[in-house]
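Researcher: I'd like a candidate sequence for this fold, 489 residues long. If you have to choose between options at a position, lean toward the conservative one.
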């Protein structure tokens, strides 16, 4: 059997680390006890009756149980373990958001705790590993993954993925059982969220730059068996996923590969920028214009970091690994396999591991860096606590979006839907249309204006907007009802 005691550097020290991490988690995420369900939470949890009525086999094998019918989200994701946790929550807690938020916080806490073990094994025990784990726990970009109930998938995948990495880098025997445990944990991470596909690549980069760091004391044959095991789990996962929903998150809307890679190059500087300066965070980022100089800058930045990882391999191997972890973590979101969003704070969940390793290395190498690191962690914790404020309700969430990005048409459209004030609804819809929204957002916003004007007695305006909807969506029944003289929805 696995000697779990030997996986922990020191049991008492580990208990102390866990308590420190727990206190930090309480400080940053305590405001979420006042938060409710927002945006996709309504489709994945609140309105998803399958969580209560469907069997376990249906929740695993039927993609239609992922979200409420009509949400169009069931074809986006295949995350059966996350869906199962929501089903269990619905049966245990009903629709009390506090319990859902608490689970997300606990999962993030354990993810940071497992990262501490990884950093202890790779960068050395002590304050450095703790500093790196604290950065991962409280960094403001993590708030989206923790505060957004429907992003349970990120923290669940993080907890299982980092547990798998901790098992693989620990010095414990027998190696065969450790590999088996890591494969099971990684499979659970993949069943939580597809971004966990990077876990073996993170381990592989560490083994390449620092031989002996992964599966220390294992024989060559055991390491080859581990590689084959990870490859096998990856193939099985991709086959299952492609069977249910395919590899793309936007089937039929992917666009040419060159355009997708250009979008990834445009997004890459945001990954680095938000990690280093976590400001102007929001739930939605508008699709950018693809200026050539920005695309070139993003591609050059990626190339420069990749080159630096190679150059630092001998002089500062852990810095090289940190850079590689950052690059590898971004790969699922650079549109190689299309994802719907251009960029999101939650996409930084795994890339942030590179920064955490760099912090652990710096503090472990120079003891004088411990105090500045503590100050930085405290600043990140304060910023993280502040970043939870928009997640209290739907209106505050989208008000923050348009405050941070006044040209975000989607943000205005969602703000109008979240508001109960007819004047705010009207102004938000008009602002959305002025900012050249995408076709679905434009049609939905015009329909919302038609309904608003109809419900407030301004029938002539309502018919004008209903007719505009019918020009683009001739079969829309609500628009037809409003446009017909003397009729209403």
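Model: Candidate sequence:
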């Amino acid at each position: 059997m696995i000697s779990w005691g030997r996986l922990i550097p020191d049991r008492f020290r580990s208990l102390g680390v866990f308590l420190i991490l727990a206190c930090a988690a309480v400080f940053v995420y305590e405001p979420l006890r006042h938060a409710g369900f927002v945006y996709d939470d309504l489709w994945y949890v609140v309105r998803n009756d399958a969580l209560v009525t469907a069997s376990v086999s249906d929740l695993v094998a039927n993609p239609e149980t992922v979200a409420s019918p009509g949400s169009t989200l069931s074809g986006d994701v295949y995350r059966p373990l996350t869906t199962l946790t929501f089903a269990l929550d619905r049966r245990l807690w009903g629709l009390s958001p506090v319990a859902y938020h608490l689970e997300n916080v606990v999962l993030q806490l354990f993810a940071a705790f497992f990262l501490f073990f990884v950093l202890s094994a790779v960068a050395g025990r002590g304050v450095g590993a703790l500093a790196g784990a604290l950065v991962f726990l409280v960094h403001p970009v993590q708030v989206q993954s923790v505060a957004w109930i429907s992003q349970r998938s990120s923290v669940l995948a993080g907890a299982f993925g980092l547990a798998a990495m901790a098992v693989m880098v620990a010095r414990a025997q027998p190696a065969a059982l450790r590999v088996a445990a890591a494969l099971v944990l990684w499979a659970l991470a993949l069943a939580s969220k597809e971004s966990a596909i990077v876990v073996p690549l993170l381990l592989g980069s560490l083994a390449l730059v620092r031989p002996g760091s992964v599966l220390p004391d294992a024989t060559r044959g055991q390491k080859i068996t581990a590689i084959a095991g990870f490859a096998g789990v990856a193939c099985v996962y991709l086959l299952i996923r492609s069977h249910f929903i395919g590899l793309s998150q936007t089937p039929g809307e992917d666009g040419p590969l060159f355009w997708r890679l250009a979008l990834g190059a445009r997004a890459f500087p945001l990954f680095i920028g938000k990690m280093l300066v976590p400001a102007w965070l929001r739930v939605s980022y508008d699709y950018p214009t693809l200026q050539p100089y920005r695309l070139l800058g993003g591609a050059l930045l990626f190339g420069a970091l990749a080159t630096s990882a190679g150059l630092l391999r001998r002089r500062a191997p852990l810095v090289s690994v940190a850079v590689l972890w950052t690059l590898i973590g971004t790969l699922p979101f650079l549109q190689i396999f299309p994802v719907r969003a251009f960029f999101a704070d939650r996409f930084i969940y795994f890339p942030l591991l590179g920064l955490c390793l760099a912090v652990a290395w710096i503090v472990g190498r120079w003891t004088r860096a411990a105090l500045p690191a503590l100050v930085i962690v405290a600043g990140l914790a304060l910023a993280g606590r502040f970043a939870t404020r928009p997640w209290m309700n739907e209106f505050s969430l989208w008000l923050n979006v348009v405050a941070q990005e006044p040209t975000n048409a989607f943000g205005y459209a969602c703000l109008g839907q979240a508001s109960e004030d007819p004047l705010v609804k009207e102004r938000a819809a008009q602002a959305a249309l002025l900012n050249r929204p995408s076709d679905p957002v434009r049609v939905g916003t015009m329909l919302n204006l038609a309904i608003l004007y109809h419900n407030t007695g301004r029938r002539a305006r309502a018919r004008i907007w209903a007719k505009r909807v019918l020009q683009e969506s001739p079969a829309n029944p609500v628009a037809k009802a409003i446009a017909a003289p003397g009729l209403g929805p």
